[in-house]
Amino acid sequence: TFEGHCRVFLAWAEHEIAHRSARDAGLATLPFPHDGFRPGQRTLAESVYKANASGRTLLTQAPTGIGKSIGTVFPALKAMPGQQIDKLFFLSARSTGRAVALDATARLTRAEGAPLRVIELVARDKACEHPDLACHGASCPLARSFYDRLPAAREAARGTLEHAQRLDREALREIARTHAVCPYFLAQEMVRWSDVVVADYNYFFDRNAMLYALTVVNGWRVSVLVDEAHNLVERARAMYTAELDPIAFRAMRKTAPKALARPIERVNRQWRALAARTDAAYEVCETAPAAFVDALTQCCAAILEQMSANGPAQHRHDAELERFYFDALQFLRMAEQIEEHGGKHSLFDVTRRPAHGGSHRVQRGVDAVPCVRNLLPAPFLRARFAGAHSTTLFSATLQPVDYYTDMLGLPARTAWVEVPSPFRAEQLDVHIATRISTRYRDRDRTLPALVQLMGEQYAARPGNYLAFFSSHDYLQRAAEAFARSYPDVPCRLQARGMDEAGQAAFIDGFVEGGCGIGFAVLGGSFSEGVDLPGDRLIGAFVATLGLPQVNPVNEQLRERMEQVFGRGYAYAYLYPGLRKVVQAAGRVIRTDDDRGVVWLIDDRFADAEILALLPTWWRPAPVAARRETSRHNAAQHEPQSGQDAAGAIFA
């Protein structure tokens, strides 16, 4: 009855009010879990607190090794009671980042027992128990009667939250399995019952972001922490890029219901026409062709009508139809955005796969990939930043500031703080190999010198090293040449498509007191998020500037960045490349006791513009005297409101 539902709701509301009161009281007296702050960590914590107290966005560059996760989570939690913040979202690009955040919240609340509910969200494809089934009750048993079984599952999940104070991926999966419900949707339901949500970027910044939607609908006041924020530029571009896969379309077409044959065939004809209109492997258009868009629109309408009229089918091929429907819908929505904004942030392009005989002209079937490609995510992200009470974006590599402000669309009042590095120049010997070029045309000629440099450095100080290259091909050639010249030096190679077990084995090879060189690709899984303190890693060779490959897509990006910001080459190539270099070199010094060496192998590293983008505490030789820095005055840009309160809290 209506009164019965009201009683259930009132009981829930009273319980939540009591929890909120206890949570805020606990957070108000929450102590820092260690005896003191690490060097630089206090500056970071105070800046995050001030940003939350003044309701501003904060962009902060904080060096690796100072404890950024706990140094951001702690002040954000401390600000929650005074600012009446409902939820804290910790967003990361990697699963390792989520694990560190979960550990940080556990350490903060363990000693005092502050009643804090923490939940971890994972991507749908990682949470799904039946990825081969369509996501509806007639296909997936965990979706069938989901809402009938949800109350019991939700109550069990709430009990776990209140007892263990966290619901990570495995805990949610176990509860979902016990109650035969979908773990992905159970996790979404439990967001409403949580104080801290640890998730991927997509959950707040994507076009259909669930956390952002819940924030708007429920009027939540949220604080957002963005871990390793330098990754957000490329990730956001991917979020607002829509591509249609011709292979998936062919597979769907074979198994689609007969009632959809005509609209699907219209899409097929227009797709073939799109593929055959030119021999060019890559084509850019101002907008998506109207005929193709119309056919796709009619097809989506027919699919929706079919599903609504007859109900979901019970066959596994329905998953392919469902996937195509949502992919096409996303494509159409992004195509509309080009029309609305005059193509400033995105473009429409077609990539054609070569047919037999070397021609790009399609002989049969659909052989083209239409794409609405985002180049500038700022227009889409502005609403996300506006929807949060405060957002803190932090990373060890966030310079130049203008690049990230322009790319991400940060608010005008964004505060910038550069946390001084706790490391000293004498801890890291930075050398520039000015007589070696790693340009593609020079690699064969300079490979012997590169190998000799690595061999001499290893002989001078044996130990664990990482060597980074621009591609797997370059890596392989360098490793083979090195093995011929120095057969006694142990070598490990990053393989193409290395799985998580292989990655773990690669890293586990860097043991204390060990020796050898690991060959890896710059920008890959071993150039970020890898912690090898002490003599587990004593040096790195970076044999590339990390510049993105020159190809038609990147050239379109360069042209657009030149048109909008007048910095085409820097925004498309230089800044993204140097960021990867600094991240890779940052694997060497992880603690105050570490000592190491970094070789920057390319003559271009000696250019003044590139030197200015390297960390301020480095003293690269032999050009240290020419180095110029553009360090920002943090005090000028820090948020002003709440300074006195921050001083009291962190005293």
Concise overview:
By secondary structure, the chain is of the alpha/beta class. The chain is 48% helix and 13% strand. Among the domains are: 242-376, no CATH class; 425-614, P-loop containing nucleotide triphosphate hydrolases (Rossmann fold, 3-Layer(aba) Sandwich).
Structure description:
- With 651 residues, the protein is α/β, with parallel strands linked by helices.
- Among the domains are: 135 residues, no CATH class; 190 residues, P-loop containing nucleotide triphosphate hydrolases (Rossmann fold, 3-Layer(aba) Sandwich).
- The protein is built from 25 helices and 18 strands.
- Strands 4-3-5-2-6-11-1-12 form an eight-stranded parallel beta sheet. A six-stranded parallel beta sheet has the order 13-18-17-14-16-15, with helices on both faces. The protein has a four-stranded antiparallel beta sheet with strand order 7-10-9-8.
- Helix 2 runs parallel beside helix 3, helix 3 crosses helix 4 and helix 18 packs across helix 19.
- It is globular.
- The C terminus is likely disordered.
Instruction: Please tell me how large the radius of gyration is.
Output: 27 Å
CATH topology of the domain at 425-614: Rossmann fold
Overall form: globular
Number of strands: 18
CATH homology superfamily of the domain at 425-614: P-loop containing nucleotide triphosphate hydrolases
Could you describe the largest sheet, including whether it forms a barrel? 8 strands, parallel
